[in-house]
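Support request, please re-run this one:
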Amino acid sequence: MKIIIHGGFFSESTTNHETKVAKQQTLLRIAKEAHSYLKSHTAVETVVYAVSLLEDDELFNAGIGSQIQSDGKIRMSASLMDGAALKMSGVINIEEIKNPIQVAQVLLGYDDKVLGGSGATQFARQHGFDAFSTEIPQRRAEYEAKLAATGTGTVGCVALDAQGNIAAATSTGGKGFEIPGRISDSATVAGNYANAFCGVSLTGVGEDIVSGAVAAKIVTRVTDGFTLQQAFEKTFAELKPIDGFAGAIAIDHNGTVFHQDSHPSMVFASFDGEHEEVFN
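Re-run finished. Output below.
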């Protein structure tokens, strides 16, 4: 049983040591809590649990603390991939929801598995998700001063459970100041994908990640016989011609945990019950 989570790329924490340390400590704590949860739950349940904890922490740009778009509103996206069942669900540009990843989890049981905009929000209300403002003063101040962060603060989790099943979940509050209606990678197979062989969650510039079909490529290559490292190296090499800005975490069916980024500053933590790792 293994867990790896990411908290996106550093933005304000790049120059704020206290924020940087806080993110490191929080990620390691959540990784350990999620691993404990994994002992009695499936990979799907665990990645939702871990990402919900990340959404609840204003240190990260997902759920509480999400970025504000150019029209002054917050719209969030999240997706869930069950690698064993090969089923993906997600919400795109959902509003006033505390935990978008939990709405994605409910959608996993429906035929229409990916909803966007007002339809996603209405579905959430109909299924007991109350209106909740995820705005924090810091984001409002950034918006009013037009001091957006770099737009790379997505969160995600990949888990391998005791039955050998893999799941991946990703959630984002967007890049900040984007055109309303913009679609991020987080609720697509470019940013979040898993099957019986591998699971991957991405962070970075959504447009670059979609252009590179990054998560789906990595998982496909592992399925076709690449090692996890080989799949990462080839896929990230294909981002170089467009100077693609991306970071990814993954676990394969052998329990190999891997991570890579194109511009080193992604924050992540992993835990397998004995060994812990936290970066940046």
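The chain has eight helices and twelve strands. The longest strand covers residues 2-9.
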